[in-house]
């Protein structure tokens, strides 16, 4: 074995000492990625992975640094940003991303992004117009 391979194995043992744990958190993250627009909660995630919800919560936090709920919120916010850029209304973006109410969505969006969804959408349209206008010459 080369020094490099030895170091990789040593680090893997420190960081990823249990392959089943790693598989569990990766599968949980994938499930969230594929189902963020549906009702997802810790009970469901633990049931799918046949593990205690408290154990799953600790594992996810250990490997990703955030809880599954925080990751779900992140994915939903990212999806809603995409929907808003595509021209969906705030309500449509809210429901398509898996949020339950436009008011709580707007509050959360503003807290995370720094702008209300409508203002974010306006800013994105202005930026896209500037990009298309900047490439044309008017001489």
Automatic annotation (TrEMBL):
The keyword Transit peptide does not apply. The keyword Transcription applies. One of its GO terms (molecular function) is sequence-specific DNA binding. Residues 26-123 form the HTH araC/xylS-type domain. It comes from the Bacteria. Keywords: DNA-binding, Transcription, Transcription regulation. Transmembrane segments: none annotated. Gene3D superfamilies: Homeodomain-like. SUPFAM superfamilies: Homeodomain-like. PANTHER family: ARAC-FAMILY TRANSCRIPTIONAL REGULATOR, HTH-TYPE TRANSCRIPTIONAL REGULATOR EXSA. This is Helix-turn-helix transcriptional regulator. It comes from Sinomicrobium weinanense.
């Amino acid at each position: 074995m080369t020094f490099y391979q030895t170091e990789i194995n040593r680090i893997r043992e420190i960081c990823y000492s249990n392959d089943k744990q790693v598989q569990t958190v990766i599968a949980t993250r994938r499930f969230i990625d594929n189902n963020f627009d549906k009702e997802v909660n810790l009970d469901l995630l633990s049931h799918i992975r046949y593990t205690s919800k408290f154990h799953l919560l600790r594992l996810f936090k250990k490997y990703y640094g955030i809880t599954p709920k925080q990751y779900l919120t992140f994915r939903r916010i990212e999806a809603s940003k995409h929907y808003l850029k595509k021209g969906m209304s705030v309500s449509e973006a809210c429901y398509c991303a898996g949020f339950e109410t436009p008011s709580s969505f707007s509050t959360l969006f503003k807290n995370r992004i720094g702008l209300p969804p409508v203002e974010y959408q306006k800013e994105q349209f202005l930026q896209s117009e500037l990009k298309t206008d900047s490439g044309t010459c008017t001489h």
